[in-house]
Design goal:
This protein is of the alpha+beta class and 124 residues long. The chain is built from three helices and three strands. It has one domain (7-98): K homology (KH) domain (GMP Synthetase, Chain A, domain 3). Strands 1-2-3 form a three-stranded mixed sheet. β1 and β2 (48-55) form a beta hairpin. α1 crosses α2 (59-84).
């Protein structure tokens, strides 16, 4: 019977949980905004991890948080290696996840189209 989840998915989920704890409790960088780690995608050989994050605020908050994450990536890798006892600790690449913003824009467009339809319907 095959496993339901691959090793990279399981390790990625564990990295996501550990990073969330580390970012909340260990990183004291003033450039770090209110950050949420959404997902971690690992390469098959577990050597590279793409970490998707969201942050409260505008474009400048995203930029300063991305820079703070880049500065902290070495510390985070070391801490992950100690906490998870991984033989190979993946290189961390932080990517801003704008799916919530895109979803909000789509919702606004749908609502705008509904209002236009209601207005057109009341005119007839």
């Amino acid at each position: 019977m095959p496993r339901e989840f691959s090793r990279s998915l399981r390790v990625g989920e564990q990295i996501r949980r550990e990073l969330a704890v580390l970012l909340r409790s260990e990183i004291k960088d003033p450039g770090m905004g209110l950050i949420t780690v959404g997902d971690v995608e690992l390469s098959n050989d577990l050597s590279h991890a793409r970490v998707y994050f969201t942050v409260m605020g505008d474009e400048s908050a995203v930029g300063t948080t991305r820079a703070a994450l880049a500065r902290a990536s070495g510390f985070l890798r070391r801490a992950l290696g100690k906490r998870m006892r991984l033989r190979i600790v993946p290189e961390l690449q932080f990517v801003f996840d704008d799916s919530e913003l895109r979803g909000a824009r789509v919702d606004a467009l749908i609502e705008q189209a509904r209002r236009a339809d209601r207005e057109r319907g009341s005119e007839d």
